[in-house]
Amino acid sequence: xxxxxxxASIAVFAGVFAVIISGRxxxxxxxxxxxxxxxxxxxxxxxxxxxxxISFETLGLLLGMxxxxxIVKHTGVFEFIALKLDALTRGRxxxxxxxxxxxxxxxxxxxDNVTTVLLIAxxxxxxxxxxxxxxxxxxxxxxxxxxxxxxATIIGDPPNVMxxxxxxxxxxxxLVNLGPVVLLVLVVNVLYVRLVFRGHFERGxxxxxxxxxxxxxxxxxxxxxxxxSLVVLGLTLVAFTLDQTLGVTPALISxxxxxxxxxxxxxxxxxxxxxxxxxxxxxxxxxxxxxxALEATGVIPALAKLVVAAGASPLLLxxxxxxxxxxxxxxxxxxPMMAAMIPLLGGxxxxxxxxxxxxxxxWWALSLGAxxxxxxxxxxxxxxxIVGDLSQGTESPLTFRSYTRVAFPGMLIxxxxxxxxxxxxxxx
Amino acid sequence: MPARQVRDIMVTDLITCRRGDKLRDVAAMFASSTISGVPxxxxxxxxxGVITKLxxxxxxxxxxxxxxADIDFIQDFSTLQSCNLDVLDADLLLAEDVMNYEPLKxxxxxxLLKCAALLHKHRADILCIVDDAGKLLxxxxxxxxxxxxxxxxxxxxxxxxxxHLKNDG
Amino acid sequence: MNIYEPYFASAxxxxxxxxxxxxxxxRTKVVALGAALLLVTGIVPLGDAWREYIDFNTLGLLFGxxxxxxITKRTGVFEFVALKIAxxxGGSYLKIMVGFCxxxxxxxxxxDNVTTVLLIAxxxxxxxxxxxxxxxxxxxxxxxxxxxxxxSTLIGDPPNILxxxxxGRGFADFLTNLGPVIVVVLVxxxxxxxxxxxxxxxxxxxxxxxxxxxxxxxxxxxxxxxxSLVILGLTIVAFMVHELFGLPPAVVAxxxxxxxxxxxxxxxxxxxxxxxxxxxxxxxxxxxxxxxxxATGVTDALAGLIADxxxxxxxxxxxxxxxxxxxxxxxDNIPFVATxxPLLQGTVAQLGLTPAQADPxWWSLALGAxxxxxxxxxxxxxxxIVAGISERTRDPITFxxxxxxxxxxxxxxxxxxxxxIYLRYFA
Lengths: 428, 169, 427
Hints:
The complex is a heterotrimer.
Chain A: H1 4-22, H2 27-40, H3 46-53, H4 56-73, H5 77-88, H6 93-110, H7 113-130, H8 136-150, H9 158-167, H10 171-196, H11 223-241, H12 243-246, H13 250-265, H14 269-275, H15 278-296, H16 299-309, H17 314-331, H18 334-352, H19 356-373, H20 382-390, H21 400-427
Chain B: H1 6-9, H2 23-32, E1 37-41, E2 47-52, H3 53-60, E3 105-106, H4 112-121, E4 126-130, E5 136-141, H5 142-150
Parallel strand pairs in B: 3-4
Antiparallel strand pairs in B: 1-2, 4-5
Chain C: H1 4-22, H2 27-40, H3 46-53, H4 56-73, H5 77-89, H6 93-110, H7 113-131, H8 136-150, H9 158-167, H10 171-196, H11 222-245, H12 249-263, H13 268-274, H14 277-295, H15 298-309, H16 313-330, H17 333-351, H18 355-372, H19 381-391, H20 399-426
């Protein structure tokens, strides 16, 4: 392997990755510049990039869900739910832990993790403050739950969006294959956090009766909008489950749902547009072009051949994919990794001549590893960083060390659970 | 301790003006006291607007300055023909030509902290307090709020530290 | 395809056009809705829209230039140049008018006209204020020359981008074919301005009035300035030679924009916010609308009509030139040009013209569509923008006051172009 296009595309990929890790330049600028270099060096044409490399399915699905979230956020429903949980769990930390974890996981499965934790975490902090406990365990649990919950659906976490869009998997595919293990991991994780922080959960502190009333008055800023949003979200879910029969892709569904809600909500289009993270979409676009070049120039197919030549059995390969992507994802941004792994794994599967059903566990392993791995360190996922920032005002702010000490083992445990699940479900 | 409400410290002894008042009389009010703004009320005492120091100053400056991102390059404003400080000599301008038709207003039970947040968010100097019917009850400025919050830091201040600072404005 | 589709596509197109003209609905929403209708009914299959009709080269070029300009204008360099020109003029009104006209034309050739006038107009108001004069004649002159200057290059005006992209004419082609006539039109127009506004030149004695500012302070960010100018310079050079490297202009613009964004500070979100997305969506939707006419054979049929009734190519050129000018003076020239392109392509094909023979048709379209915008105050976006700014001054530009100056100027430029086209391509 030594032709100019190949070397150049590897150099661009490595360079962009290095710049992103160094954090000196915004990742979208880096990715777009890398893509521009690919075009300027004529490694591919603009036509090819546009029609082949860029996965508009992925972009469409991301855009649709971002827009829906932006509109739903306006209703204040996130805060409302969190406050209701507060009211229901009055003063019992153990219950608070379970309730908030479960709710965060559930919401994260459908809406983006960052927004979810951004809106729930502050209320969680207040809830714990009122019973004079340390919020740290709860914050860690919320963070981990958001990543866990997001693993269950095609829309829950960007790696899944990429995987599902490029491979044309459906919403149900994800739910049926990953739902069970995600549920399991969630339960195990909550128990784990409870165990690690057992000192915080002992009875003591003020009696629940002395707590001030939690008022959910006026938290819902726009009742009409809330109703509309829930209706549209409901329809979207239904459409997602029926997407195969309707013959439409998840991206089309989410875009239509977003457009519908945007029109009937009466929210100013400018505000909606302002809330969509366009730089994120640009980042994906640039990345697609760079990875597309790696594929087209033959770098990735060659790597795929190497992987196959190593002679691993499908089961072993599955486990390797799972653990490798988890470790990688906990330390570095998992999006570039996913972008490169998808064609790589695809190539390997082709070489191995695996059927679609035989190949499935490999993809689920990649998804589980990429999403759950993000729990490992404070920088493993964007939601973690956000909660870390929000925790700065509390009595035990989350530092890289304090979070990782708890979360990394927790993540490893969840990966063990996944390993067993994959083995039992697909290989026994 | 219940949060302090704005009605506790708002200034009720007000200088106000009417829409039809001559602008130069309003300008004189600014010149002769340290007020931050003059509420504009109608005959029944309902608030219709407010004239702030910035409104007044902006009136003398050419409008096109708003089109620039940056006016650093202008060193000497006296060369601008349209920058005319004597425009008020002619008796033609009224309060309504300059006033802000959408003044920031709150009810009397609003907490001080919320008032502070509003002033900060809208980058305003003066907040008008009105009743349910829109009638002007008082005003409060950032200075008043600062006094209420930070009066306790004045060296030698007793428990009623902020009281002895009362003066005009 | 059933027989109703051509009528349906035409109806949607005409309705969209009418709505845009009526200004009751924002033009982007109109074309988006129209495009959606065509896509949903399958008259334009989504795949075709994506691969054939939506001209991503145009969108890419527009987007790239928008980014480059947005970053560069943060440096304040355009204001600096204008202020420097004013100082050079020493208070001579003639020198100011000529100087501002020239820089407006040059800027417009490389930046989009709207941004150019948005940068020049405030400075014009300021300088006019210094001299105690109404800015009106300067503003009108700037409107005229911004449309003129923008006609000379591939990137100067959207019609040129559309034409260049569709028929494969590059930056150098535009410059060598349109540059000469534009220079002539510019010079004549400046003389015309001197004549039309001769009243303003009477009794101007305040040479010492151009003071009170330091143009150096207009530069906000020296490092950014250096980077932007270097990249802008390289971009222009790259545009001139892009065909040698086989790179479409859009790639040049995108690479330059990506490079500039990469090495400068403004965050991506901010840069993206400043991009005129409604304009880009408008173009995309327009492409689909016109694509509807193409897909259903409407444009081919019309092209056939034109081809059949054409006696000589030269007459056709002149008709295109004057027709485009008149159209463009009153209505938005972008939908017009977007429609004319497939029409003329069909005509060229049916007449069996070689590219060399077809060239003058395209240049006529470009000249007519761009220069026609000078005819009335609503002829081009730059005009409307300046009119809006002028509305808040003491001597606003009215439709009539502009018409009295602009229409003759535009007609004169059309005569010059007619002569040029005859001499250069047919004599």
